[in-house]
Design goal:
The complex is a heterodimer. By secondary structure, chain A is of the alpha/beta class. Helices cover 34% and strands 14% of the residues of chain A. In chain A, α6 links the parallel β5 and β6. Chain A starts with 29 loop residues before the first helix and ends with a helix. By secondary structure, chain B is of the alpha/beta class. Helix content of chain B is 44%, strand content 18%. The longest helix of chain B is centred in the middle third of the chain and has 33 residues. The mean pLDDT of chain B is 97. The chains are: A alpha/beta, B alpha/beta.
Chain lengths: 306, 417
């Protein structure tokens, strides 16, 4: 991707960190890893408008890990909360009641449960209205805060606490990226905490643009995906190397893939490390399901041209 | 001051305009839509310096309203019926944010069956949300209550959102002469919004609406809202005195009519109370000592005012335009709770449910209510709750059912009702 950001090398990444420590997120939370990096780039002049999810527990009275502001809304309407805050700040600026320096970047912080489901109507409405905001989704592919039930972000064949049969979840992960593009977003990007340079560039780019902008972060989840917290980074890297999680962005009417894995690692290496896919390997290896998953990934990258 | 013939909806819009609402998140629903159309028209033609935004649902509308009020601007919105219910999660939420916005509800019956016409089940469903409630009986009162609502909601002792209720069709689409005050006069009654310490600014970060762990802090914040709502009773008294001083119109928490020497009293809210008032006049002409009590303020509940107004009466007939299935009328239940054990409490509280889904309550029915209630007082026996319904109405329904059966025979289609 074109890179006119301040991030050219891993050494350019922020060395001081804004997010306070001691949050109640699980050990090895891939969502918190991404949020922490994103916050460092966005800076403290940020108001997070939160939808119900794991991250709602970041701000529990009287503590908050944020240097900036926070508003919890509901599971279904965080983008509408962002609308109210943005409009009110604009009104106050127009009337000269606040200085430009008092303005803030309005950021929705949501999990996939809200982003792919209950919050989608409010999200689409905000895009329709061209709302000037960043929408940050940490996607751990299930309703994680309640114990990893199936959501519309759950991948095919994954076992969740509501899809416990031999086949796991029979459906397929919804393509939220394309929904945002089709709806008329000004910027859409996928990121992951294990690719910090790619992430920092995209956040800086998003922060400089106007309009509805989404950052969709895959959030490896030790408790929901059933693996040891120490493996979070490795699973995140494998998600990219296998091509399961394409790093891409949409801007100026075009989708660009930022990292095309030259030789993709077979998806089984990603799947076999997670308990949620263990039934595909034990007691019997389900070769057909594994081949289906691999061929879906292959078809995606064939279409991209890699 | 100008005097114009306007609808209840237009009166609500004038209230928002004169209150200099900064921000109006909106969503259309019958019979409220005229309010947001009127405001949108003024804004588009430079007559009102506000920003209006159409949301994609009432749930989002209420979220945006609360978020904007929490950021520090004056917010107005309006809804009705299913819309109020769709927003219900956020009514509770923004009341807890202590966001002092004003929401006009144009009362309409709730599905099922779906209808467009008026009753109070929608607004009664919001009674426990933390929104304060004012109920109107005339178009003038709608305008005035909107201004009064902002003063109460924004008072530092209260800081809670407030709902102004008017009846769909009967008030929303009825034109009455309304005095529209001058902006300067209103300004002296309602100064610009001061959000105080509750606002979002980069230089002064705050967290609002955060989670709590455990019942202790949860109870504390819930009790705070309750105490603030209770404090609104005194604030209401001050504010309406101020309103009367400036505009010459008086709006006590409860309106009493011919109550002083009444033995039997009707109690009801909203525009149908004007029908009760006419019935009181007719009954008085016939020598019956009947009166009327109409609560304007329903949250906080004006228990003390009601005890005082009803002390020593022989009986009260509570007429509810709402129905809690398996229980009965909500106003009746709340009045019983307020009066129980108080000095001079009327020995008979009779319950009547009527006026649902736009159904009229006729003069003859008011006379019957008075008769039944008087008999109950004479005999000292509280009558069974009555659901107002006439033989002629039952015949009409039977006719519709006969047609439905006939149609089913012709088309094979099933209509379930």
């Amino acid at each position: 991707m074109s890179n006119d950001t301040r991030f050219h090398d891993i050494k350019d990444l922020p060395s001081t960190h804004l997010l306070g420590s001691g949050t109640p997120m699980c050990a090895g939370c891939g969502g918190l890893q991404a949020v922490s990096q994103i916050y460092d780039v966005l800076g403290p002049n940020t108001i997070f408008v939160n939808a119900a999810g794991c991250m709602t527990l970041l701000s529990v009275y009287p503590f908050t890990p944020f240097r900036g502001s926070w508003l919890y809304t509901s599971m279904g309407s965080a983008p509408a909360g962002a609308q109210g805050v943005r409009d009110a700040l604009d009104i106050l600026r127009d009337r000269g009641k606040i200085e430009a320096s008092e303005d803030m970047q309005v950021v929705v912080l949501t999990g996939d449960g809200s982003a792919y489901g209950m919050g989608l109507s409010a999200t689409s409405g905000a895009i329709d209205r061209g709302l000037d905001f960043i929408y940050l989704c940490y996607d751990n592919e299930g309703y994680g805060n309640t114990g990893q039930q199936t959501s519309a972000a759950t991948p095919h064949a994954a076992r969740t606490s509501t899809s416990t049969g031999a086949a796991g979840y029979p459906g397929f992960k919804k393509d939220l990226f394309s929904i945002w593009v089709a709806n008329g977003a000004s910027y859409v990007a996928t990121v992951i905490g294990t690719e910090p340079l790619d992430l920092a560039r995209k956040i800086e780019k998003a922060a400089k643009l106007d309009g509805p902008r989404m950052i969709l972060s895959l959030a490896p989840c030790p408790t929901g995906w059933d693996y040891d917290p120490k493996d979070s980074a490795e699973i995140g890297r494998l998600a990219v190397k296998t091509g399961v999680w394409p790093l891409k962005e949409f801007a100026d009417g075009e989708v660009t893939h930022n990292k095309k894995p030259r030789k993709r690692v077979p998806v089984v290496e990603y799947l076999e490390r997670q308990g949620r896919f263990a039934h595909l390997f034990e007691p019997e290896r389900q070769d057909r399901v594994l081949a289906d998953i691999q061929s879906k990934v292959d078809r995606y990258w064939d279409a991209v041209g890699s | 001051m100008s005097r114009r013939l306007i609808t209840g909806n237009a009166a609500a819009a004038w209230g928002a305009r004169l209150a200099r609402a900064d921000y109006i998140p909106a969503f259309p629903i019958t019979p409220q839509t005229e309010i947001i159309e009127t405001l949108g028209n003024w804004i588009d033609h430079g007559e009102m310096p506000a920003r209006m935004v159409m949301l994609e649902s009432e749930h989002s509308m209420m979220t945006a309203a609360g978020a904007a009020a929490a950021t520090g601007v004056r917010v107005f919105s309006a809804t009705s019926s299913q819309g109020l219910l769709h927003a219900m999660e956020m009514l509770y939420a923004v009341a807890g944010w202590r966001a002092p916005l004003v929401l006009v509800n144009v009362s309409r019956g709730l599905a099922s069956p779906i209808t467009l016409e008026s009753d109070h089940n929608d607004v009664m469903a919001a009674r426990d949300s933390g929104f304060l409630q004012l109920h109107c009986a005339s178009c003038q009162e709608v305008l005035d209550a909107t201004l009064i609502a902002y003063r109460i909601a924004e008072d530092p002792r209260v800081r809670l959102p407030m709902m102004v209720n008017l009846d769909g069709f009967y008030l929303s689409f009825t034109r009455e002469p309304v005095s529209i005050p001058e902006l300067d006069e209103v300004r002296s009654f309602l100064p610009d919004f001061d959000p105080g310490s509750i606002r979002f600014r980069a230089g002064r970060p705050i967290s609002q609406a955060v989670a709590v762990l455990g019942g202790g802090p949860y109870s504390y914040f819930r009790y705070e809202s309750h105490l603030a709502a209770n404090a609104a009773a005194d604030v209401h008294r001050e504010v309406v005195m101020d309103f009367e001083r400036i505009f010459g119109r008086r709006y006590d928490a409860i309106e009493t009519y011919q109550c002083e020497d009444a033995e039997i009293v009707f109690l009801m809210i909203g525009s149908f109370s004007t029908k009760a008032r006419a019935a009181v006049d007719a009954l008085r002409d016939a020598g019956e000592p009947v009166g009327l009590v109409r609560p304007r303020l329903l949250r906080p509940y004006p228990a003390e005012d009601l005890r005082r107004a009803l002390a020593g009466k022989r009986a009260v007939a509570v007429i509810d335009q709402n129905l809690s299935p398996g229980h009965g009328g909500t106003l009746h239940c709340e009045l019983a709770a307020a009066l129980y054990g108080s000095d001079g409490a009327p020995p008979v509280l009779a319950s009547f449910v009527g006026g649902l889904g736009g159904r009229d309550i006729t003069a003859a029915e008011f006379f019957e209510i008075a008769k039944v209630t008087k008999k109950a007082a004479d005999e000292g026996v509280t009558p069974e709750p009555r659901l107002l319904f006439q033989e002629s109405e039952l015949r009409e329904v039977r006719k519709l059912q006969a047609i439905a059966h006939h149609e089913r025979g012709l088309t094979g289609a099933e209509h379930v009702e």
